[in-house]
Design a protein that fits this description.
226 residues, alpha/beta, 6-stranded mixed beta sheet, 23% helix
Length: 226
């Protein structure tokens, strides 16, 4: 599997392209602020043809470039229905104070928007990705993982040493702890976590060192591969 990425814009949001190999079809995950040029560079470098854009949630720093990226390549965007409204109303995902920082920014939905659901298996670009609904950061947050749990695209659910904030509209701390307990902790230690911000990590490393996963642990069910 080919996975390449870069941190986009002032928010340094990780945007990824994922393909079976160079020269094949791919999906794009979370094209954030000013990500269009970086995406095109990766597509040229690896000779990739995108077939879809996958969104871990609807916050502005993850969806900023979704409409131009989808429009340039005539591909659909996939997002959970609970966050779909943020594609055209990004200020709704921020506090009143934060929203004032984005005055004058207008976004629109891509022409083709498709909705994600918990447990769905997406078969795209010769890949299979399992969708896990992981609310708590936003109501419609999701993560994507390979069926064998080798790789998890965690969005803003889980970071190296931390987790996503839960104090914005649609966020809830007990809910994000439940998502961590039910969707992260059951994964094997060697699952590679590719987060929405910051460096990659593993479930095992976070299980051992991340204080939020330790807090979530009493709510987790049986674990696998430990």
């Amino acid at each position: 599997m080919l996975i390449a990425g870069f941190p986009a814009g002032a928010f340094q949001t990780n945007c990824y392209v994922v393909a079976p190999a160079a020269g094949e079809e791919c999906v794009i995950v979370d094209p954030g602020q000013d990500a269009t040029e970086g995406v095109e560079e990766l597509l040229r470098e690896h000779r990739l043809k995108p077939v879809a854009v996958l969104l871990t949630h609807g916050h502005l720093d993850h969806v900023w470039s979704v409409a131009p990226v989808c429009g340039a390549r005539d591909v659909p965007a996939w997002i959970h229905p609970d966050d779909r409204h943020l594609l055209s109303d990004p200020a709704a995902g921020w506090s009143d104070t934060s929203a004032s920082l984005f005055g004058g920014i207008t976004l629109s939905e891509p022409d083709d928007v498709r909705e994600l659901s918990d447990g769905a298996v997406l078969s795209l670009a010769g890949l299979e990705l399992v969708v896990d609904h992981t609310p708590g950061h936003t109501r419609g947050s999701v993560s994507f993982r390979t069926p064998g749990d080798e790789i998890m695209f965690s969005g803003d659910l889980l970071f190296a040493g931390s987790i996503g904030r839960s104090d914005l509209p649609g966020g809830d701390y007990p809910t994000i702890l439940r998502s961590l307990a039910t969707k992260c902790l059951p994964l094997p230690d060697d699952t590679v976590v590719l987060p929405g911000h910051g460096p990659q990590t593993t479930i095992g490393r976070e299980r051992a060192t991340n204080p939020y996963l330790k807090e979530a642990a009493p709510h987790a069910g049986p674990t696998r591969g430990i």
